[in-house]
UniProtKB/TrEMBL annotation:
Gene3D superfamilies according to UniProt: Homeodomain-like (1.10.10.60), Tetracycline Repressor, domain 2 (1.10.357.10)
Keyword DNA-binding: yes
Superkingdom of the organism of origin: Bacteria
A Pfam family it matches: TetR_N
DNA-binding region: 28-47
Organism the protein comes from: Streptomyces vulcanius
HTH tetR-type domain span: 5-65
Protein name, per record: TetR/AcrR family transcriptional regulator
Keywords, sorted A to Z: DNA-binding, Transcription, Transcription regulation
Coiled-coil segments on the chain, per record: none
Length: 194
């Protein structure tokens, strides 16, 4: 029988808070049960297992992150939208490193297609890229370029890996300038150039 007061939503929010406190790997059934003062078994009436909890957490994080990005890009297009999108992405990753890391897991396709957060992420990302006139498969390639650039930069920055005296913010701005140029002059699959 589910313990009174415990819900899936409460567990996922607590898991997000735990991720920021203890890192993504610190999110376990036992750690979450301790947080609520219950036995591990009490949580299994709400989540199937640790993988289920972590998928739910990743979807929650994706929703939080895209909500912030949506606000940032509202009413913008082109380079302004790209910059706002990138800055909101980076701010979330640096403000919530544990949550951000927890959101980087692979989610099975059957779960992904039913996720409002992932659908919104695709819609907002594609909407931001619309100004660059990209169609499939170039659109997917561009999304992968942006995600790998943003993720790589944020991971390196969070880990303190940028040791050169150059200002990290200025390098970020240059990276966004370079991405804008790449998107503007995209080598299209049909052989045309942007």
């Amino acid at each position: 029988m589910p313990r009174a007061g415990l819900t899936v939503d409460r567990l996922v929010v607590a898991a997000a808070e735990l991720a920021d406190e203890a890192g993504a790997e610190g999110v376990t059934i036992s750690a979450l049960a301790r947080r609520f003062g219950v036995k591990d078994a009490s949580l299994y009436s709400h989540v199937k297992n640790l993988r289920d909890l972590r998928v739910r957490l990743a979807l929650f994080v994706g929703g939080e992150m895209i909500d912030r990005i949506a606000v940032a890009v509202a009413g913008l297009a082109g380079k302004d939208a790209l910059t706002a999108f990138a800055d909101a992405y980076r701010a979330y990753a640096l403000q919530h490193p544990g949550r951000y890391a927890a959101g980087q897991i692979r989610i099975d396709q059957d779960i992904a297609v039913d996720s409002d957060a992932l659908r919104r992420t695709a819609e907002i990302t594609h909407g931001m890229l619309r100004a660059y006139g990209l169609d499939e498969p170039d659109l997917t390639d561009a999304v992968r370029l942006l995600r790998s650039t943003f993720h790589g930069y944020c991971a390196l920055e969070a880990g303190g890996s940028f040791g050169a005296p150059r200002d990290v913010q200025r390098s970020w701005e240059k990276a966004i300038d370079a991405l804008h140029m790449a998107l503007t002059h995209w080598p299209r699959e049909d052989g045309r150039s942007g």
